[in-house]
Amino acid sequence: xxxxxxxxxxxxxxxxxxxxxxxxxxxxxxxxxxxxxxxxxxxxxxxxxxxxxxxxxxxxxxxxxxxxxxxxxxxxxxxxxxxxxxxxxxxxxxxxxxxxxxxxxxxxxxxxxxxxxxxxxxxxxxxxxxxxxxxxxxxxxxxxxxxxxxxxxxxxxxxxxxxxxxxxxxxxxxxxxxxxxxxxxxxxxxxxxxxxxxxxxxxxxxxxxxxxxxxxxxxxxxxxxxxxxxxxxxxxxxxxxxxxxxxxxxxxxxxxxxxxxxxxxxxxxxxxxxxxxxxxxxxxxxxxxxxxxxxxxxxxxxxxxxxxxxxxxx
Length: 314
Prior knowledge:
Layout: E1 2-5, E2 14-20, H1 24-36, E3 40-48, E4 52-54, E5 61-63, H2 70-78, E6 114-121, E7 131-135, E8 140-141, E9 157-162, E10 166-176, E11 187-200, H3 205-211, E12 233-234, H4 237-247, E13 266-281, H5 287-313
Antiparallel strand pairs: 1-2, 2-13, 3-10, 4-5, 6-8, 6-10, 7-9, 11-12, 11-13
């Protein structure tokens, strides 16, 4: 198998990768590994403060109650993408030399856990605003600052507080895998499809049914005969995606298809043993880190399998 990042990608958290000299089964194994096996950090335990809290400056008393149960808040925290830096050597709690022999409630150290805190009070009683919204930006990382939330995740809402209410807790993030809980899955919209080539079969009046619509590609090029060049074939992957979307404008039900219209002036052919692999991450890992993580997981799995087979037949 050969893997090549398509020119111009990644774009943000999304990526397109060309996989060649491979099969559907092999590509699907990468898809499954991305979803279920690549480790990432997620908040897995939250210790809430309970009771009342008096503000020494104003004398106001706040209670540890709010509009959402603690369990719902904990679930929302679990789904916030936590920056995961594989190169920093964070390990699973069960593999941590400091914690693996401890009981569950005592596990947690800088080698296997990232710690966050939050303390927010509702508006003062004399405020014109009734509710105060609590966002992910209110989380403060106590561990290394590199694990602070990304700017794009700062406005994720957690809950809201009325006057006289407060929310305070410590949250603990650990490594996990998507097969154990969705909060540990770093990717979404994971898909693959055969690589295609587009062929201009009927230049002229038939193809102009599409070309005369004035459509453009993602990068602003007009969709016309010039895209196909002298050989009347397009193999550029991004152009193929754009052209497939454009074809919907002359397909069945548009009144522009059939022998009096477009009449399959442009068709698509599959390229054997070649696939376009697409996905995006939640921001906890870059797309390249996630893909490399999936390949590492698969490599380790098959190395272990080879060892077991050798031992079985020895």
